[in-house]
């Protein structure tokens, strides 16, 4: 069985730090012993404290593992055996166990919260004692003047002396040789602790007594603005019609602090501005937390004349369909009984065709040669089944056919000696030209047209492609599939491998390629929540706390601006 354990270390009444893990075991052992499946520390925890096992109708049976082990039920009574239903709790020492609804791919889900000591308990252990400055032997006036003069010397006189005084003489003094460290409020972040930066303050601090400028950062970091700051410095900035003024780089990227916060990922990073945005015809109103996040917008390809353009559409748009010109049924290919293949019945799975990119984010595109050609061959000549045409446009396919039949004519020294029955009457009136090459071209062109017509209408092409039959000769409509449905967001498939594909993509019931199989925001909310979301929203199921920066990025890229 698969147990999802979600531990919460309480920080305040509204916030905690989550730690998720999945344990595979028929019986879940809990205790202070390091060999236990789930190790707990704290007072009142025995080495082998409790064992959890499967009960009837989705319940969990908790049984004390030793005589000293105590289990507290919801009513506060100490018991040795307890049956937990969904939503019920039990206490083990400082830990509170709650049986919650299990997500897809998980048999049981447990939420574990460890409560800290109350402030009253701490104050009783460490009582405060009143003390005045005079009790310490310090004279307020004398020491105030002394420290002020010392601060003036260190903060003003010494730096001015260092700048305008004899540099060589000052550097020879051991104490003064390291005077720059007096200005340093903390260590550099590891990413900046490299030669040429860590040993040269002027790389970032180009002017005396001035904060670090954006131009100092942009000497190394070439990034685009988040919004247009009316300076026209970024062609890719979005929302150029707003009154937004771009903040300093150092507002978000904070250096010389411990712990270092070079890249912020907290919710106020975004909501401090986005919660005050007013709604208009094109944009949603302000977003203060993930609980109030509007429905997602899909990026979809639309054909306008001969060109294709990307349009963003609301997920809840009625009758929303993808127009890819592809004919494909996921339900047919994911049949549990399998499908006919070159080696007999073959059962396909999602990963038979879909595999993530090397960075684990997007899914690699599907190609005919890699994913389809084993079952869907492009053979055209019954006497030579191994020979196939390329999966390309019809002009290239026709040229390949003409070359094949021209060579066949030449090798056999005419049509009558061919392996193929070529005794059918000519389609054109009159006799073939006496010239050998003219006859070869005429015969090869005729055969190529017949083979191409058979491929397009009755064999390979029409199986997966949509045909355009408006003209005198049918043609194949181009296949256009969007590379990323949510290009303005960041999704990591590798971090979701613990879940089945079906938990987000309902492909097994999809018969048409026009079906939208991308999950909406409701699907994401079944597992994720923001740190500022209400308790009613958080308590619906076990949630993973995710900030805005988990899916979005501050600095826009060229692709982001194009999809806005």
Q: Please work out how many helical segments DSSP would assign.
A: 15
Mean pLDDT: 80
Strand content: 15-25%
| Overall geometry | extended
3D structure, described in words:
With 564 residues, this protein is an alpha+beta fold. It has 15 helices and 20 strands. The chain has helices at residues 119-125, 140-164, 167-171, 174-177, 214-218, 249-252, 268-274, 330-333, 368-372, 394-411, 436-457, 461-464, 521-525, 535-538, 558-562, and strands at 2-10, 16-24, 28-31, 38-39, 50-54, 60-64, 71-72, 78-79, 81-84, 89-92, 95-100, 108-114, 297-304, 307-314, 339-341, 344-346, 467-468, 475-476, 528-529, 544-545. The strands form 7 sheets. The protein has a 5-stranded mixed beta sheet, with no helix packed on it. Strands 4-3-5-6-9 form a 5-stranded mixed beta sheet, with no helix packed on it. Helix 10 packs across helix 11. The longest helix is centred in the N-terminal third of the chain and has 25 residues, at 140-164. It starts with a strand and ends with a helix.
Quick recap of the structure?
The chain has 564 residues and is an alpha+beta fold.
Could you name the key traits of this structure?
564 residues, alpha+beta, five-stranded mixed sheet, 22% helix, extended
What's the topology here?
Elements: E1 2-10, E2 16-24, E3 28-31, E4 38-39, E5 50-54, E6 60-64, E7 71-72, E8 78-79, E9 81-84, E10 89-92, E11 95-100, E12 108-114, H1 119-125, H2 140-164, H3 167-171, H4 174-177, H5 214-218, H6 249-252, H7 268-274, E13 297-304, E14 307-314, H8 330-333, E15 339-341, E16 344-346, H9 368-372, H10 394-411, H11 436-457, H12 461-464, E17 467-468, E18 475-476, H13 521-525, E19 528-529, H14 535-538, E20 544-545, H15 558-562
Helix pairs in contact: 10-11
């Amino acid at each position: 069985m698969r147990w999802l354990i979600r531990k919460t270390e309480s920080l305040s009444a509204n916030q905690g730090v989550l730690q998720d893990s999945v344990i595979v075991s028929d019986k879940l052992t809990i205790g202070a012993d390091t060999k236990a499946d789930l190790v707990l520390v704290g007072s009142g925890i025995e080495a082998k404290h409790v064992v959890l096992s499967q009960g009837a109708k989705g319940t969990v049976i908790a049984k004390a593992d030793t005589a000293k082990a105590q289990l507290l039920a919801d009513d506060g009574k100490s018991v040795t055996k307890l049956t937990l239903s969904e939503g019920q709790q039990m206490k083990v020492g400082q830990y509170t166990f709650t049986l919650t609804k299990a997500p897809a791919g998980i048999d049981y889900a447990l939420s574990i919260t460890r409560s800290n000591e109350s402030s009253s308990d701490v104050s009783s252990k460490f009582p405060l004692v009143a003390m005045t400055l005079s009790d310490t032997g310090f004279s307020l006036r004398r020491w105030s003047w002394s420290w002020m003069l010392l601060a003036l010397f260190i903060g003003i006189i010494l730096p001015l002396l260092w700048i305008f005084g004899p540099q060589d003489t000052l550097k020879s003094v051991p104490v003064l040789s390291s005077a720059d460290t007096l200005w340093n409020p903390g260590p550099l972040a590891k990413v900046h602790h490299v030669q040429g930066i860590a040993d040269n303050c002027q790389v970032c601090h180009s002017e005396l007594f001035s904060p670090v400028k954006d131009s100092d950062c942009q000497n190394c970091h070439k990034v685009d603005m988040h919004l247009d700051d009316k300076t026209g410095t970024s062609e890719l900035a979005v929302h150029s019609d707003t009154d937004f003024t771009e903040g300093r780089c150092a507002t978000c990227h904070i250096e010389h602090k411990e712990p270092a916060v070079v890249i912020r990922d907290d919710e106020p990073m975004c909501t401090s501005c986005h919660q005050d945005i007013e709604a208009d015809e094109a944009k949603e109103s302000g977003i203060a937390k993930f609980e109030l996040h509007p429905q997602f917008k899909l990026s979809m390809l639309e054909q306008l004349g001969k060109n294709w353009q990307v349009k963003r559409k609301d997920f809840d748009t009625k009758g929303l369909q993808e127009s890819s010109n592809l004919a494909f049924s996921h339900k047919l290919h994911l049949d549990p009984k399998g499908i006919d293949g070159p080696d007999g019945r073959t059962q396909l799975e999602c990963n038979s065709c879909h595999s993530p990119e090397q960075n684990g984010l997007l899914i690699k595109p599907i190609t005919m040669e890699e994913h389809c050609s084993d079952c869907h061959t492009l053979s055209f000549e019954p006497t030579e089944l191994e020979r196939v045409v390329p999966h390309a446009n019809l002009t290239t396919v026709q040229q390949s056919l003409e070359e094949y039949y021209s060579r066949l004519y030449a090798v056999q020294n005419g049509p009558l000696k061919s392996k193929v029955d070529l005794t059918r009457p000519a389609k054109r009136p009159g006799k073939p030209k006496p010239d050998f090459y003219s006859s070869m071209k005429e015969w090869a062109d005729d055969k190529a047209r017949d083979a191409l017509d058979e491929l397009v209408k009755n064999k390979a092409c029409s199986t997966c492609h949509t045909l355009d039959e408006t003209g005198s000769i049918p043609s194949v409509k181009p296949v256009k599939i969007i590379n990323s449905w949510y290009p303005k967001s960041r999704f990591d498939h590798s971090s979701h491998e613990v879940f089945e594909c079906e938990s987000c993509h309902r492909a097994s019931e999809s018969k048409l390629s026009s079906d939208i199989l991308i999950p909406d925001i409701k699907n994401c909310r079944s597992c994720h929540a923001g740190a500022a979301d209400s308790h009613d929203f958080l308590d619906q199921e076990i949630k993973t706390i995710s900030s805005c920066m988990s899916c979005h990025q501050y600095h826009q890229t060229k692709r982001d601006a194009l999809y806005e």
